Amino acid sequence: MKTLNVDVAVIGGGTAGLGAYRAAKAHTDSVVMIEGGPYGTTCARVGCMPSKLLIAAAESVHQIEKAPQFGVHPQGDIHIDGKQVMQRIKSERDRFVGFVLEGVDEIPAEDKIRGYAQFIDNSTLVVDGHTQINAQRIVIATGSRPAYPAVWNELGDRLVINDDVFDWDDLPQSVAVFGPGVIGLELGQALHRLGVEVKVFGVGGQVGPLTDPEVMAYADKTFQEEFYLDADVKVERMVRNEDKVEIDFINRSGETERFEVDFVLAATGRRPNVDNLGLENTPVELDAKGVPTADPYTMQTSVENIFISGDASNQIPLLHEAADQGRIAGDNAGRFPDIRAGLRRSTISAVFSDPQIAMVGESLRQISQRLGTCGCFETGTVSFEGQGRSRVMLRNKGILNVYGEQGTGRFLGAEMMGPNAEHLAHLLAWAHQNKMTISQMLDMPFYHPVIEEGVRTALRDLNAKLHLGPEMIKHCLDCGPGC
Q: Known NCBIfam families for this protein (predicted)?
């Protein structure tokens, strides 16, 4: 067996792993990156980028279907070429992966170890039985994988995860999506708009990542108006029948219904890839899910020379968070024992459905848990149904709730569903990271007519409830009609 002695070993070559490797290399040349799977990052290969390609195709169909509402009538029926749709998705996906691989290729060959690593002790790793690595510091950046009930494996190749969708050569006729979270909503709605018969099922009533009951109820109602969604379904039977899957479920009318599909898409969450690392051979403290606990500002675990980052940490499984965590973990592993707190930005997340869903800062659940029900915070709201620019574009669906602290007037967070929510969320996230008050946010410029005027309406509502501003004027004219 080959033996290597290094300062830092990074387990994983995805977004977090690459960030950790490069950050550690700024302090020492003695760094290796271990990867057993394909390079290319989850985002580029099977996550955010290919899913947005599918969504973009679906949006183009939707715009044509909406055109008659503007008095514009396309000639003839819409023809969706599923093979051409998937060909473009795979072609562009491969292009994005190629950009990542170019960066990987720039890493010296001697720094890249192929295989799966396991801990022997706090500072010793064995890679696939061929290499022993004695590392003074170790960064775990092993990512995550889809999680679903093991019994579903009986469906064989009729069971797919989001990774599989982007390898299809053609669009199927029917799909049952289990899990109305981020992945399930994005893929389910996109497939529906591309002509696939889709039903989306969930358990427990959760829709997306939302915690605000008012926003979640609005989202549930809005999606149900477009495609079948039951966020708390009772499935009586799900079995494979040749090349189909038969699903018997109690529908929203309380009747038993059968849905025969080409595929069952499991979008029921992801699991950190830490269960096969041999962590039992170390004293690293684990949480209830078996994931190493770590300081969110240093990414240091309970064992001082072991760090964790990205989806493996199970803190905030988003690409930009993985990149930040990777840099922090790699920097501290490289400069050890001079551990420093890294920049953690205000939380921002988005679901690229239509309307989009977004969350900024603290969620309503987090605020309620921290401040309780003592009346220490208030909620400002706006509906996009009557908002001027949204109605102009026939995109007037949505609701925005913003939360502010009594006394200080500080902006705490927001949950929303609405048009251009991804852009509204960025504005609000910048305000949150700068610890702005609601009054300061209202001092910022708002053009007319723009969707962002809806943000101002919600902030004004909140400011009045915090007793820091005047009562809301029902038909305010300082920003023109239709606001």
A: PRK06292.1-1
Distance CA 329, CA 138 (A): 9
Q: Measured between alpha carbons, how far is 167 from 159 in angstroms, rounded to an integer?
A: 14
Query: Distance between CA 17 and CA 325 in Å, rounded?
Result: 9
For residue 193, what is the DSSP state? H
Q: What letter does residue 316 receive in the DSSP assignment?
A: -
Beta bridge partners of 312: none
C-alpha 359/C-alpha 422 separation (Å) is 9
Task: Indicate the length of the chain as a whole number.
Answer: 483
Q: Could you give the strand order of the β-sheet that contains 197-201, starting from the edge strand earlier in sequence?
A: 159-160, 263-266, 174-178, 197-201, 228-230
Whole-angstrom distance, CA of residue 151 vs CA of residue 256: 22
Domains of the chain, by residue range, sit at 2-146+271-335, 150-269, 348-465
β 244-250/234-241 pair status: antiparallel
Q: Which of 447, 433, 477, 441 is nearest to 460 (CA)?
A: 441
**76-92 pLDDT tens trace:** 889 999 999 999 999 99
Statement: 2-146+271-335 belongs to CATH 2.60.200.30: no
Does the pLDDT at position 427 exceed 90?
Answer: yes
- pLDDT tens per residue, range 233-283: 999 999 999 999 999 999 999 999 999 999 999 999 999 999 999 999 999
Quickly count helices (H) and strands (E) in the chain.
Answer: 13, 22
List the structure tokens of 92.
């562009």
CATH 1.10.599.10 fits 348-465, yes or no: no
How far is residue 283's CA from residue 418's CA, in Å, rounded to a whole number? 46
**Per-residue pLDDT at 478:** 56
Query: Please, which residues have CB within 8 angstroms of residue 412's CB and are 6 or more apart in sequence?
Result: 361, 362, 367, 377, 403, 404, 405, 432
Question: pLDDT tier at 477 (50, 70, 90 boundaries)?
Answer: low
Asked if domains 2-146+271-335 and 348-465 share a fold, the reply is: no
